[in-house]
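Bug #77: duplicate submission created two jobs. Keeping one. Sequence:
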Amino acid sequence: MKHKFLSTISGATLYISFILILSKGIGFIREIVFAGYYGTGVQYDIYLVSSVIPLTLNIIVFFVGQNYFIPSLSKYSNFGEKSEIKFSKQVFVSYILLTFILIIPLYFFSEWFLEIFFSLPQKEISSTPKLIFQILLLTVPLSAGISILTSYLQSKLEFKSPAISQLFINFSIIILIVLYSSSLGNISIALGYLIGTLLQFVYLLRKTFGIRAFILETKSLLPEKIRSVLYLNIIYIVLIESIGQLYSIIDRIFFAELPEGGVASIYYAQSLFLFPISIFTFALSTVIFPRISKSFSENNLFEVNEILSRSSRVTVLIFTPISLVYLFYSTPLIKLVFERGKFSNEGTLMTSEALGLFTISLVFYAIYSILNKVIYSANLSKLLLLLTIIGICLKYLLNYQLVAYFAQAGLALSTSITYIVFFIISLYLIKLKLNVSLDKKVWLELLLNVFNGIFSYIFVEAFFYIFSFTDIILVKLSFYLFVYMINNLLIEYETIKFIKQNLFRNQLFFNLK
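Kept job's structure:
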C-alpha cells in the first residue's frame, strides 16, 4: 500500500514535502547552532563571504544536471534498460570530470580570487577564508554526481532516497560545530558541509549503481567521448541557471540608494516568500518532471495538459490562502517570527511592506515553477534562456526606475513584476510551441479562492472583534485557515470534489508508472 501511494504524484509529493519540512526544521536548528556558537561576530562574516561562490556553484551544478539529465534520459527509455544505465553512467562520470576541471583554477588561485572580489578583514586570518573556500570547492564535483544520482532515482520513481539524503549535510554540520568549533572555529562549518556532501554522495551511489560495481567498470566509461554525452542543450541550461542567480546581486547594486536596513528587510521578506515555494512547489515539480519528460518522449500532449492543469489547480488551492495570509497578516507574522533582539519595530514595518509586494506574484511564481519543468522537458532550453535574459534585464530596469521612488519596496515590486512576466511569457511559449495550455478552470478556481480568502478574513476579523477574543496571531491564523477550508468544502468546486473522491484511492494525479 505504501509503495502504491508513493507511485502516485500526490503521494510522492506529500512524502517529499514532509521530508523537506523535516529538513527545514533541522536547518532551523542549524541556524540556532550558528547563532549560539558564532553570533554575528567576524568568524561567521568570514564564513559567509568565503562560502558564497562555492555554494552558489553547488546550486547551479545541481539544477543544471537535473534539468539536462531527466529529459535526456527519457529519450533512451525506448532502447531498453541497458541503454538507460549506460547513458546515466556516462553522464555521471563526464559531469563530475567537467566540474572538477572547472574548480581547478578556482582552487589554485583561490587567494588571488578572494583578494579581488572580497575585502579580507585581517591579514593574520587571510588563510582562513582561503581554506574555507578551498574546502567548499571540493563539494562542487560531489554535487554534480549527486545531481545525476538524484535525477536517475527520480526518473525511476524512487523519491524516498533522494529526499532522505538531503538530511546528511545539516546533521554533519551541527555535529562538527558542536565537537570542533572551539578548536577549528568557522572551518568546522566547511568541514561539516564537505563530510555531509560526501556521505550524501556515497549513500545515493549505493542506492543507484552500487559502489563496488561502479568502481570496477568506471575505466570502461572513461574512453567514451564526453561530447557524445553532453549536447549543446546543456550550455543553455548552464547559462539559464547561472543568470538566474543574479537577482540578489542586482538588488545589492542599489544598496547605496536604500535606507539603513533596506537590504536586510528584502532578505527577510524574500525568505518568507520563498519558504512555501521551497517545500510544496519544489516537491511537486520534482515528482512531475520525470512524468512530463516521458509524456513528451511519447508525444502524449494530452497527458502533459492534464498533469499541468491538475498541478496548477492544486497549486492555486494551496498558495492562494498563503498569499492572503502574507497580505492580511504580514506585520503580526513578521513580528512573531523576527522581531527580537536587534530586529526593531521599524524593521518589521519595512519587511512587512516588502513581503506584501512580493506576495502579489506568489501564486503566479508557483505555477511558473511547474511551467519551467514543462519547457525543460520539451527541450526548449534556448527559448528559456532568452526568457531568462529578458527577465534579468527587466529586473535591472525596474530596479533603476522604482528604487528612487519606493526604496527597498521598489526592489520587491520589481521582482514581483518580473515573476509575473515570466509566467505570462511561459504560458504563451508553451501554447505557441507545444500546443499545451492551462485549463480555463484554473482561472475560475483562482477567483473563487481569492473571494473565499477575502470573505474568510472579514469573517474572522468580525468574529474576534464581536466576541473580544485575545488577538493572538497563531490562533487567528489557525482560525482563518480553518474557515477558509470549510468554505471550500461547502463550495465544493471541481478540484475540491476531485480531491475528496480520489485522495484515499491514491488517484489525486496520474499514476507515475
